[in-house]
Specification:
Farnesyl Diphosphate Synthase, 17 helices
Length: 294
């Protein structure tokens, strides 16, 4: 993954100009964390394969691919500017950038947020409710006065927001919410994923006086918490279909492998975009199979 990161850094725009800075601010390695659930929501919300690609589904995918990431990570970086000064992930290696107070960057983040208003006349009420939830939790996670990221357990719980783009897409095509068990399973999975990603930040957060679920539990107990979330998520999904449960079961097995191999969490953290992409692809293929062959 280090070689991949180096190649990406070599071909991507420089952070020293505004377009390049915004590219890195949007976390390109994590673009599919929001756009991927849209694809999954589309294939499971559709009643025919013809509904997979339509103006509104393409627009949702494109919005959650980049503008929504600019909103989510932009708000995070703006309100974390002081903390990020001592965060090793915000280094000169090209993985993440530090917000430096640019008004132009803040304006782009506001514009990316406002762009979502274009969906108001296009989406049914259920989809709009999920979209509103995404914005509310995305802002409240980082911005005062709530700033969930500084409250143990609430930081984890609020990150179920990563499931909401999928709910938006599903509701857009079906006109109803996904099964509650599916939302709960995905939400708990996202809680584990977020908390795992917070482990590399434990020492910088402690140094900055930031309290999170990971700083409260420490590395080993945080790993157990993540594994527990993923076991519960797999169990919930299995009640819908064994196929879904088996896909989600990959994650507790993966974390067990990391522990058994004594892999540093700061290294394994960068493997998850690939793991999540593969899992999302399998879920998507399962949804397509359901429509084509069921």
């Amino acid at each position: 993954m280090t070689d991949v990161a180096g190649r990406l850094s070599s071909i991507a725009p420089s952070e020293r100009n505004l377009p390049g800075y915004l590219f890195w601010l949007s976390r390109p390695r994590f673009w599919l964390y929001l756009a991927g659930p849209v694809i999954v929501g589309v294939v499971y919300g559709a009643s025919t394969t013809a509904e997979f690609v339509s103006p509104v589904t393409v627009a949702l995918f494109l919005y959650f691919l980049i503008p929504a990431n600019l909103f989510l990570y932009g708000v995070n970086d703006i309100f974390d500017a002081d903390i990020d000064e001592i965060n090793p992930k915000k280094s000169d290696e090209g993985r993440e950038v530090r917000y430096t107070g640019s008004r132009a960057v803040a304006a782009v983040v506001v514009a990316a947020t406002a762009l979502g208003a274009g969906f108001l006349p296009l989406l049914p009420p259920e989809a709009l409710a999920a979209l509103a939830g995404f914005y509310l939790l995305g802002a409240a996670y980082s911005a005062p006065p709530l700033r969930f990221k500084t409250t143990p357990l609430l930081d984890s719980l609020s990150n179920g927001l990563y499931v909401l783009p999928g709910v938006v897409a599903y509701a857009t095509l079906s006109g109803s919410f996904p099964p509650l068990v599916a939302v709960a399973g995905g939400w708990i999975w996202a809680m584990g994923m977020h908390t795992f990603s917070a482990i590399p930040d434990v020492e910088p957060d402690r140094a900055a006086g930031i309290r999170t679920t990971a700083t409260l539990l420490g590395e080993r107990r945080t790993l157990a918490y993540c594994a527990g979330c993923w076991v519960v998520a797999a169990g919930l999904m299995a009640t819908l279909h064994p196929f879904l449960g088996s896909v989600f079961a990959i994650f507790p097995v993966f974390i067990a492998g990391i522990v058994a191999a004594n892999v540093a969490i700061s290294r394994a953290y960068w493997w998850f975009p690939l793991v999540n992409t593969v899992a999302g692809m399998v879920l998507t293929l399962g949804g397509i199979w359901r429509l084509v062959y069921a």
